[in-house]
Specification:
single chain, about 350 residues, alpha+beta, nine-stranded mixed β-sheet, 10 helices, about 30% helix, about 25% strand
Length: about 350
């Protein structure tokens, strides 16, 4: 394992680990898992991992052998960029985004390595089946009956601000090294989140710079770090990040590749909770205090504390969306919301 380059990590608890070299499928350990853990060696037999062990150039050639002839979205930092994909002083993004053929993007990285001028280049959450042919089949993970979204993250040294995701996440370090720093879901207040509608990648992020935390501006960050866990992954290692756990992610090598799998524990036809939060901000947050109190009570009754008392007095056939949702009733509710929101 590489030495940590910041003393902030030396004081943190470590993510629990299991040696998974040659141990087979992981379906059973994922069932009911609600805490993060590391699986050392889970994907060490991947051809992509083997290519990366030869060299970064070999890993890029391997990906190019599988790449489809289509545009890839890439984020690029300006000269002098420190790899932190974040906001600038005006709360705009401190990087620019564009599209290009993977071969052209990699040629730029090759040239930077040759000249010793490695710019921040980051291809984030690239859909594997849509952008690569045969890559997933050649580098598999047995997730049982789960049907995950499969993404690849490719880039130079990067620092991704702490954020969370709604689905469960299995993240596999294929090339380079990754450091993860994780926080339980309830630590959001201590992470000082930025805007939820103006974000670097679609999720609200911590405003704290983990490389140089400003404790005068963010004093509760000390409390967040008291609950943090950290780990560095080598090629072939994987980490399970449960839904809604906050994670700060760093690519520590000059070139890094991560493959991750996202899956929900609920049916795909259910709505996204973030959309409900956005709608609540639109419809409820700015009401007078006494009105918000009424709606808080209604939410507790119909959503957070819902039990049989909500519907016992209504004939079963007439309970509509108060009954457990089905694909059909969820579809009707979604159509109703679309009509009302488009007024």
């Amino acid at each position: 394992m590489a030495e940590r380059d910041s003393p902030i990590y030396d004081r943190l608890a470590r993510v629990p680990e299991r040696d998974w070299r040659g141990a087979g499928g992981i379906d059973a350990v994922l069932d009911g898992a609600h805490e993060p853990f590391v699986l050392r060696g889970l994907v060490e037999d991947w051809p992509l991992v083997a290519a990366g062990r030869r060299s970064a150039q070999a890993a890029r050639r391997y990906l190019l052998d599988h790449a489809r002839d289509r545009a890839f979205t890439v984020s690029i930092g300006p000269p002098g960029h420190d790899g932190r994909l974040f906001y600038d002083a005006d709360m705009a993004m401190n990087f620019r985004s564009g599209t290009g053929k993977l071969g052209d993007i990699f040629a730029g990285i090759d040239k930077g390595e040759e000249l010793g001028d490695i710019r921040t280049v980051y291809l984030a959450s690239i859909d594997i089946p849509a952008h690569f042919e045969g890559l997933d089949e050649a580098n598999p993970v047995d997730l049982g009956t789960r049907d995950p979204l499969k993404s690849i993250w490719i880039g130079t040294r990067t620092r991704i601000a702490a954020h969370n995701d709604y689905p469960d996440n299995l993240a596999c370090c294929a090339v380079g090294r990754r450091r993860f720093t994780l926080f339980p879901p309830d630590q959001f207040r201590n992470l000082y989140l930025g805007p939820i509608d103006n974000t670097p990648a679609g999720r609200a992020v911590s405003m704290v710079d983990f490389a140089a935390p400003d404790l005068a501006a963010y004093p509760r960050f000390v409390d967040a770090m008291a609950h943090a866990q950290t780990v560095e992954l080598d090629p072939g290692d994987a980490i399970f990040i449960p839904s809604m756990w906050w994670h700060h992610v760093e690519g520590l090598a000059d070139f890094n590749i991560l493959v991750n799998y996202w899956w929900r524990r609920t049916p795909a036809w259910l709505g996204q909770p973030q959309e409900a939060l956005n709608h609540a901000i639109l419809a409820i947050r700015d009401l007078p205090e006494e009105d918000r109190a009424i709606w808080r009570d209604l939410f507790e009754h119909y959503v957070f504390g819902a039990d049989e008392s909500v519907t016992d007095h209504i004939p079963e056939a007439a309970r509509s969306i108060l009954a457990p949702l089905t694909p059909e009733s969820a579809g009707r509710l979604r159509a109703f919301l679309l009509r009302t929101l488009s007024r």
